[in-house]
Design goal:
Glutaredoxin, two-stranded antiparallel ribbon, alpha+beta, four-stranded mixed sheet, globular, 2 helices, about 90 residues
C-alpha cells in the first residue's frame, strides 16, 4: 500500500466511568502511528459498542475492542497499534 493511504477508523461508544459515550482518547495512539507512517486518518462513528475497525479502500483490514487499546498513548509501544499499522501496509 502506498504511504499516503486514506484510513477510516470506525469506532463505537464504550463505557468509562459509568457512562457509555463516543470517545477518541484510546484511538490517539492508532492515529499517531498511522499518521507518522504517512497515512491520512479519518474517524467515523458507528453504533457497534466497543468496536474499532480500520478500513482502507472500502476493505476492513483490522478490528479490535477499543478497550484493548492503550489510553492516550503515542502508539509506538501498543502491540495492537503496531499490528494495525502492519495490516494497513498489507492492504491493497
Amino acid at each position: 500500500m502506498p504511504s499516503n493511504a486514506k484510513v477510516f477508523i470506525k469506532y463505537g461508544p464504550y463505557e468509562a466511568v459509568g457512562n457509555v459515550e463516543y470517545r477518541d482518547s484510546r484511538l490517539q495512539g492508532l492515529k499517531a502511528i498511522l499518521t507518522k507512517d504517512g497515512h491520512t486518518v479519518e474517524f467515523v462513528k458507528v453504533e457497534d459498542r466497543n468496536a474499532v475497525e480500520l478500513c482502507v479502500n472500502g476493505e476492513t483490514v483490522f478490528t479490535c475492542d477499543i478497550n484493548e487499546l492503550d489510553y492516550g498513548s503515542d502508539g509506538e509501544l501498543d502491540p495492537l497499534c503496531i499490528k494495525a499499522k502492519e495490516a494497513v501496509k498489507k492492504a491493497y
